[in-house]
Every structure is written in C-alpha cells, then in structure tokens.
C-alpha cells in the first residue's frame, strides 16, 4: 500500500494522535512496520497476513469516522443541542447505509480498506463482510442504547427551532401550550420566520 509518509514515528511521538489516526498510520505503513518488527516481535506476521490487514484497514476507517464525529461533538463554537442531535442521528443513518454498501461489496466509503483491496487485489471473503456488517450493526445498536432517551427528549423540544410545525409534542405546561398555539397561528410571525429574519429579531 502506498503511503505519503517517509518515516516511522515511534510510540512516544504518536501517542497524542486520536485512535483513528494511529490505526490509519499503521495501516498505511504496515509493511514497513512488519520489517521493523520482524526480528523483535511476533506481531510482524500479522501485518503480513491479508485478512488481518483487511480488518485493520476497516478499523482505521471506522475509527477515523468516529473521531470526526467526536471532534464535532467536543464543541464547535456556537453549536446547539439540536445540531448535535442531528449529527448523531445522521451518523446512525450512515451506519445503516455503510452496512448496506458493505453487504453489496461497495467499499468506497472505507477509503483505506478500498485502497488496500485494489492495490493488493485482495480477496475479501464472505466472513470479513459478515464481520464488518455485524460490527456496523452493533455500533448502531450502541448509539441507540446510549442516545435513545436524550434524542426522544430533544425531538419533543424541536418546537423551539420551529414553533410553526404541526402536531408538536412539547412536554410543556397547558398554559405554555396555549401560548405556543397562538404563536404558531400568527401568520405575520410565520412570514417573518420563513424569511429568515426570525433569528435576527
């Protein structure tokens, strides 16, 4: 596999890198690392095993995507809870999409994996496809487990972003609900909202 890097950084120099980046670097330089380790570690034989490297490149790609999501959630200035909710929900939908693509042997959203397969004419056995598919499914289930309640709560508060949407479950008091109805039926306010001036006023 071709790589853009000219030197091998030791652990003490790369320990600050996010996990996804470490795996990507290892996947890109697995041949060089194998040479480096061949006289000192049994790990070298794994880096020369095609199935192991296929798993490694997949993990590099999925951890890279998780790292991107994590960086976003750590705090873009001015980000709202609704934007975070949408980002997580979007990522969960992508997991389903990626699973369907993998099952069809479409690897284009897993760049490191795809490059290794193409450059080495690697054979991707059904077992690898099943493992990746199951892993993506379990990831989705984990997201659902950890974020289900908070996402439902946030969904009930979406009237804050758009008080004019119909049939909103708000979870607010009856009095506040009446006021929200009055607001949502105010055509002049609705026109202001639709023109984008709402957030500026």
Automatic annotation (TrEMBL):
<protein>
    <recommendedName>
        <fullName>Zinc finger BED domain-containing protein 5-like</fullName>
    </recommendedName>
</protein>
């Amino acid at each position: 596999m071709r790589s853009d890097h000219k030197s091998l950084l030791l652990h003490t120099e790369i320990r600050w890198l996010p996990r996804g980046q470490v795996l990507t670097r290892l996947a890109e330089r697995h041949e060089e690392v194998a040479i480096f380790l061949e006289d000192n570690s049994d790990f070298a034989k794994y880096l020369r095993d095609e199935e192991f490297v296929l798993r490694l490149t997949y993990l590099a790609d999925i951890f890279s995507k998780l790292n991107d999501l994590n960086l976003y959630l750590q705090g873009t200035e001015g980000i709202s809870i609704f934007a975070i909710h949408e980002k997580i929900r979007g990522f969960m939908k992508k997991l389903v999409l990626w699973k369907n693509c993998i099952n069809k042997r479409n690897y284009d959203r897993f760049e490191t994996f795809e490059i290794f397969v193409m450059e080495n004419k690697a054979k991707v056995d059904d077992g690898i496809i099943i493992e990746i598919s199951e892993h993506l499914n379990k990831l989705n289930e984990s997201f659902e487990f950890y974020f289900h309640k908070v996402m439902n709560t946030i969904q009930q508060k979406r009237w804050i972003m758009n008080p004019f949407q119909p049939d909103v479950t708000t979870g607010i008091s009856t009095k506040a609900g009446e006021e929200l109805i009055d607001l949502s039926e105010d055509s002049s306010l609705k026109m202001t909202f639709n023109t984008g001036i709402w957030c500026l006023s």
